[in-house]
Amino acid sequence: MRFLPGLALLLCLATSPAPLFAQEDPVVEDPSPAADSGMRQFFLGLLNEGKSLAERGYFYEACVAFNGVLERGEEVEEYFKTAEFDMAVNLHNQGLIYSAFTYFARIVDAGDGHPYYRKVLPWLITIGRQVPGFQGVKEYLSVYDAKDYPADYRDEIALIVGQFFYSQDDHELALQTLALVGTDVEEFYLRAKYLEGAIYARKNEAKGSLDAFKDILRYERDSLSKSEVMQTFHQMAIMAIARIFYSAGDFDRALKYYDEIEKYSDYWLQALFEKSWGFFRVHNYERSMGNLHTLNSPYFEEQYFPESRVLQAVILYTNCRYEDAIVVVDQFVKEYDDLRKELNSQLAQNDDPADFYYWLAALSQKGKGFSQKLKRIFNLALADKKLYRLFTFIVALDREEMLLESMRKAQVQKDLAEYLLGELVTYRELAIGEAGEQAQARLTRMRKELQRLVSQSMKVKFEALNALKEMIEGKREATRKQGESRGWVVVRDDEHLAWPFEGEYWKDELDSYLFRVENLCPEQQK
Question: Does the reported pTM lie above 0.85?
Answer without folding.
Answer: no
